[in-house]
User: Fold these one by one.
Assistant:
Number 1:
Amino acid sequence: MKRRAVIALLGGAAAWPLAARAQQPAMPVIGFLRPGSPESVLLNAFRAGLREQGFVEGQNVAIEYRWTEGQGDRLPTLVDDLVQRQVAVIVTPGSTAFALAAKAATKTIPVVFASGLDPVKSGLVASLNKPGGNVTGIYELAADLAAKRFELLHELVPSVTVFAALVNPANAIVAKTATNELRAAASALGLEVKVLEASSSREIDVAFSSLLQQRVGAVLVSADPYFTSRRVQFATLASHAGIPAMYSIREYVEVGGLMSYGNNIAHVWRRVGVYTGRILKGEKDLPVEQSTKFEFVINLQTARALGLDVPPMLLARADEVIE
């Protein structure tokens, strides 16, 4: 073989890896949009769902995280940033408002939500089985569980006649739905519910201070992502005030809260990860999945500290009792 031919052959071989790399698709990017601040346990659940579909962060998928950290006015800017970056999917677990904002910002980028409100009534999708458009996800049924939470709290403290509902006005749709449910449930039993609002750490402090002044006997904390990020504050304030409190998810009870009834949020976030992975693999028109995994958790140590005797029948109904 002539020397020139050998050089040409070697030059071609040396170029193969570069050509191969050039032909490889770019790593897909997920835009992750969420109220509050990072929650490591829940993020791990989301990543676990992605792994089930073969996607590992940093290896074959990247994630751009955006958190409002209690500053709701940042939402439009954060959404626009993700759309401008042309991410492959926008994920909005735990906030109907964030999912609606993402839907309004793009008609082409898929949006995966986890919403506590009926996604049809809230305008996220056309129907559960055939969402249409670019939006789908997990329906948590969170707001629809408010009446059940009231029933359980009333069973624990049957002598209480005045309850409080603490809602976040920044999460208006959820707040209104929960308020209506609680008032209807209380009215049926001849009881009263006072509605208090808070959308910042300071306002939460003020709300708890007013509970004693208004002679409230127990409080129900509305399902809300920002409230979840302040769960240690809630548990501490309720303990100091000596007021029984009912929450939406177990994460409150794990840090000293009294009781919770609602979705297993880690399970919901894992399912959001699974849906995101399926979309990255090219699946389309995925139906909205309805959450079916609910749990009732009681912190018996907190109950004792509040001087409460938990009825045996209520303990028997709990999925988990924290000693």
Number 2:
Amino acid sequence: MSTAVGKSGIEHLYPMPDSILLILKIACYDCHSNHTHYPWYSDIQPISRILNKHIVEGKSELNFDEFGTYSGRRQRSKMKAIVNQVEEDEMPLKSYKLLHKKAELNKHEKAQIINWAYSHLERNN
């Protein structure tokens, strides 16, 4: 599961345990990083178009690999959004979880992500 990430990756700016990085890679990185793993059905139309639209939109909203290029204000905003969307079960998308069962976050994984993000928000206020 290792991927080469530049110094602008979120894990270089906001240290995290390997367990959280693994959760993010499994549940988030396909749509929110520069390391998308395309499934076998990604070449089938119209699925290809829909999938690509989700990925492009996801990366434009949040790209973990480019987190360091965001302003400090945008980084804080994105960390708050991570907390809110994980708490509200808005991310990962239901449509993504249907085909990627490992992306379904359990209560413990949600708590880990939320606590990690809150800890960095508190430090940067």
